[in-house]
Amino acid sequence: MSGTGPPDSLVELTPELLELIFCYLGPSDLVHVGQTCRRAYDYIHPSNQPLWKACFLHVFDHPKHVWNAYVPTARNAIHSRKSAWNWHHELVRRMKAYQLVLAADKKAIAPEIEGIVATLLDIHQTASFTATEDPERPECPHSLNLHYLQELQRRSRDFDMIVHDFSRDKDSASLPMVMGPAEPDRPITRSIGRKMAIPEWASRFHVRKACSSSALANSCQIIHGPTEREEESLRSKSAARAIVYDWNVTGPSADYGPYQKDGSGVVNWQTVEAISSLMYRIFNTALKSYGLRPSGFDINVHNKQPLDPVIPHDWAGVTGTWVGTYAFLDYRALVHYNFAHTLEYPLDLGNYEEACGDLMRLDLTLDDSDEIKQDPRLQSDLPRCDDLPVLYFNGTSTRQPTERPTIGVRGSVCLAPGGREVRWRLVIR
Length: 429
Description:
This protein is α+β, with helices and mostly antiparallel strands. It has helices at residues 15-22, 27-34, 38-43, 49-59, 64-67, 72-77, 79-83, 87-103, 106-109, 113-125, 144-155, 200-206, 228-231, 234-244, 269-288, 331-340, 370-373; strands at residues 130-131, 141-142, 320-324, 327-328, 355-356, 360-366, 391-399, 407-415, 422-428. The strands form three sheets. The chain has a five-stranded antiparallel sheet with strand order 3-6-7-8-9, with no helix packed on it.
């Protein structure tokens, strides 16, 4: 070409123009451009972070929206990750997980399962809702991350295989199995047994949220929840009950909650998973008559529930109307399981059913009176994160339809250590 004439090819444009053009391309298109010639390949090198950042943001939400919403303690914990963030690496990691799940090849997925689940957890944990650009639905928020996860679940032939335990390797620590006859794809929870160590990432991905509570990204990051195949599985119920009703799982050092038994206040995700797996079925039964099904990836995404401007200090979203239910095992079975249960005569709780209540309506409001703050039932020796204040509340519980007197409710909510999970305590009077 002449020194003053136009370039003969696209890649001979100035770097500024190339970046302006290429930033409109998606990941696969950008890779195809790099295959055309050496100069194009060199230009889309992973070191070109501004280019890969633009490509990343075509598909995913910017993680800064969630990171900036963290309380200082949680923000400090991820400082090193933010500093080392590589747009090309993160994009490749997410695309690889997507393709592996779509391929539905169990032999290929088994050795990669931890990386796949960790990647999907990361996508969910950095999801944030923003105002939609759809002129016909301006009030409807959207999230690129959420769309990505929902599309993956929709397109996958067997998405449940990364939720259920499917490894054929009985010695696998990351994909534990119940010993017994071979049952391919059997729907069981990862909370297999009381003495089996379950990886935290496996339990976190399996957990669902009982109800939406916080407008911040500081609340529990949870994803999938029980699958349809799992809901009616007798083995799944038995595995969850083996943890939920075991008095040795919790105690005073865990404040009788789903926390580690070391006084740290750190969440025990295997216990949360078992409780969630069991209560999901019970809560879902109560909701069926109302045509509701609170599950899926869109639970607890940042900015989906903005703070109420009238009550800006209600960081946990306490004020308002909640729905819930309760359940308990027959006391005779509970005692038998904890005192008479032995390896020689094991008690299988799969055939037992809890007594459960109807859907309850809870109307809650904040209460900063000294009387409720000094209520010994709302005190805890477990440490907490002080980046946000403890909130106290009271309210009422009524049954739907109303067939009994109104019941009083009071409680407290605070941030757990680390500033990423919310700890609730309720007293039903």
